[in-house]
């Protein structure tokens, strides 16, 4: 937690800069292309960071017997 960024506003997913209306949610066409390229190359990894709004219940262990 080193970035004092706002919680509701996210920056460019590529570089973190404030997004531009024209290229939202990216800050520039370059970053948009970078993201697109990731999709095309299939190397895009969807962030698994979900909103820790609720406490996820732990996986119920199978009861022996
Ligand atoms: Zn960017």
Ligands present: zinc ion
CATH class of one domain: Alpha Beta
Q: Spans with pLDDT under 50 lasting ≥5 residues?
A: none
> What's the number of extended β-strand segments?
0
CATH topology value of one domain = Erythroid Transcription Factor GATA-1, Chain A
Order of helices and strands: H
Tell me what the CATH architecture of one domain is. Answer: 2-Layer Sandwich
- Helix/sheet category: mainly alpha
> In percent, how helical is the residue content?
10-25%
Overall mean pLDDT score?
78
Radius of gyration: 18 Å
Tally of alpha and pi helices:
1
End-to-end CA span? 45 Å
Principal-axis shape: elongated
**CATH 4th-level superfamily of one domain:** Erythroid Transcription Factor GATA-1, subunit A
Report strand %: under 5%
Main pleated-sheet profile: none
GO molecular function: DNA topoisomerase type II (double strand cut, ATP-hydrolyzing) inhibitor activity; zinc ion binding
Subunit structure: Interacts with GyrB.
Cofactor: Zn(2+)
InterPro entries: DNA_gyrase_inhibitor_YacG, Znf_NHR/GATA
Word description of this protein:
This protein has 65 residues and is mainly α. The protein has a domain at 9-42: Erythroid Transcription Factor GATA-1, subunit A (Erythroid Transcription Factor GATA-1, Chain A, 2-Layer Sandwich). The protein has one helix and no strands. The chain has one helix at 29-41. The longest helix has 13 residues, at 29-41. It is elongated, with a radius of gyration of 18 Å. The mean pLDDT is 78. Bound molecules: zinc ion. Interacts with GyrB. Zn(2+) binds at residues 12, 15, 27, 31.
């Amino acid at each position: 937690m080193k970035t004092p960024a706002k919680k509701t506003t996210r920056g460019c997913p590529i570089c973190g800069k404030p997004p531009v209306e024209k290229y939202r949610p990216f800050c520039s066409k370059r970053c948009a292309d970078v993201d697109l390229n990731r999709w095309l190359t299939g190397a895009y990894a969807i962030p698994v960071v979900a909103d820790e709004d609720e406490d996820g219940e732990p996986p119920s262990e199978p009861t022996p017997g």
